[in-house]
Design brief:
The protein is mainly α. The protein contains five helices and no strands.
């Protein structure tokens, strides 16, 4: 995920999944992401793209919590934007 096009692709993909009612598929994705390989920017993009559906996603909060632990283990300062996406 290097540029705005990558982020736009993420938002559009999630929008289509939600439009088609595939919340359980998004939950499966959250369970399978390799969190240690994600940058904080990538974590933010995934969380931001799903914020309006967070009440319909069972695994999103768990994903957020694991990302938070990962960032802390890296001793990487969490951005305010990240913290607001819980």
């Amino acid at each position: 995920m290097q540029n705005d096009n990558d982020f736009n692709s993420i938002y559009l993909a999630f929008e289509q999944l939600f439009k088609n009612g595939h919340h359980s598929l998004v939950d499966q994705m959250f369970s399978r992401f390799d969190i240690p390989s994600l940058t904080q920017t990538a974590m933010i993009a995934l969380l931001d793209a799903t914020i309006f559906q967070k009440n319909n996603l069972k695994k999103r909060q768990e994903f957020y919590d694991k990302c938070k632990i990962e960032l802390d283990s890296r001793k990487e300062k969490r951005t305010r934007r990240f913290d607001r996406l819980a």
